[in-house]
Design brief:
The chain contains twelve helices and 22 strands. By secondary structure, the protein is an alpha/beta fold. The chain is globular and about 60 Å long.
């Protein structure tokens, strides 16, 4: 497939019930991999994510103390988790950097909090942004304060490094805390290693602990990636089977099971798998209003589902999307307009207001954002279009295009 553009279309839809095995959650994989390195465990991690982001996290860990510069590319998780990890590694002297977009994404709240705990971190360029020079050292820990409004990954980064802190950590959260399920996921990962923290809503306490972990840990498949299939089922009316998912998931994006009921998608639970189908006789809503604060990574899928089905509505709680791989709210507005969809937005909302005629020869700009490429695929059900840089999907879902072919997608270079 061309690195520049590819033409996607659906000349025919699938007639069977394809079984798609989605790789492990990159969020859970990165937490397990980071914590394993922090505590020096040799636990085997099964069903790990094969994404670029997971590879970048491993590159940070493998490079600690061995290289002078670590480049994590577009991997925001690796930048955040890696900063806290490297700061707590005694003897490390390294610069961590990334792509041009990564160096535009703020990191000051995390750096300030780590400095409060005794970390040695300096900015190599503009204050508040990567690249960072980190001199790893033994961190005593104790109390720190950090805003909960920018990114939960800043908070999770400190939590994951805290088992190496002599006094543990008490993180005092200021402002409104976004993406709470991701903080709870981190607490669950810590507990898998025998480390029990407490989260009261404005404070997280992780005491000094003795690590206790078994021989292996199994990563659940990625619910964020499952969202693209929920969207396809909602817009096509066909069925699909997905593995491997748990009914009691620690992933916040498992909430799509409830979100997509609004679009008529039923989730049938089997042994480690789910079957998605459209409820017979389902009457499509004219308007929806959905709070996405706890599930921002599936907001693009939901917005495109609404657009493809001609449903007006509003998505709220999207403030963190402004500082992702791209400004995802602005990107959604710009790209949906090419399909005749009129949108408006605020700092943390996106409204779909009206529908008109789509443009001819559409080129979907992906802005180096994997989720832009994948979320828009259902729009090809009503006519093909070109996708810029389709290989960007490897950031989170390497086999995406191959799996979509099983649903009838045709991809031309």
């Amino acid at each position: 497939m061309s690195q520049d553009t590819a033409y996607i279309s659906f000349p025919a839809l699938w007639s069977d019930v394809p079984h798609i095995v989605i790789s492990g959650s990159k969020s859970q994989t990165n937490r397990y991999v980071t914590l394993r390195a922090v505590v020096g465990s040799s636990v085997c991690i099964k069903n790990s994510s094969d994404s670029d982001d997971a590879a970048s996290m491993r590159r940070v860990i493998d490079g600690a103390g061995r290289v002078d510069v670590i480049d994590i590319g577009h991997a925001g998780t690796a930048m955040r988790f890696g900063t806290a990890y490297l700061a707590s590694r005694e003897g490390v002297d390294v610069v961590i950097t990334g792509s041009s977009r990564m160096c535009e994404r703020p990191i000051r709240p995390l750096v300030d909090a780590l400095r409060q705990l005794g970390a040695s971190i300096e900015y190599e360029g503009e204050e508040g942004y990567p690249p960072l020079r980190i001199k790893g050292q033994k961190i005593n820990g104790g109390e720190c304060s950090i805003s909960g409004e920018v990114s939960s990954q800043f908070i999770s980064a400190i939590m994951l490094a805290s088992p190496s802190f002599e006094k543990g950590v008490e993180i005092n959260l200021t402002g409104r805390v976004v993406s709470v399920p991701y903080i709870k996921m981190t607490l669950g990962v810590l507990e898998d290693f025998g480390i029990k923290g407490q989260f009261t809503g404005s404070s997280i306490v992780i005491p000094p602990s003795i690590v206790s972990v078994g021989d292996e840990l199994v990563v659940e498949s990625d619910w964020s990636s499952a969202s693209y299939y929920y969207s396809m089922v909602a817009t096509s009316g066909r069925q699909v089977r997905l593995s491997s998912f748990r009914r009691c998931s620690t992933q916040g994006d498992s909430r799509i099971v409830d979100i997509y009921r609004a679009f008529g998608v039923d989730t049938e639970w089997g042994e480690g798998e789910i079957t998605l189908s459209l409820v017979k006789g389902f009457e499509r809503p004219r308007y929806v209003d959905i709070d996405m604060e706890d599930t921002p990574d599936v907001a693009q899928s939901v917005a495109v589902t609404m657009a493809a089905l001609g449903i007006r509505g509003r998505l709220t709680g999207l403030s963190t999307l402004r500082v992702k791989e791209t400004d995802r709210i602005a990107a959604l507005e710009a790209e949906l307009s090419k399909f005749g969809v009129k949108c408006s937005s605020t700092i943390d909302t996106l409204s779909i207001e009206d529908f008109g005629e789509r443009k001819k020869d559409i080129l979907l700009n992906t802005y180096q954002d994997h989720r832009m490429a994948m979320a828009f695929v259902p729009m090809a059900l009503c006519g093909g279009f070109y996708v810029e840089n389709p290989s960007v999907v490897s950031k989170s879902y390497t086999a995406f295009w191959e799996d979509m072919r099983r649903l009838g997608l045709e991809i031309k270079k």
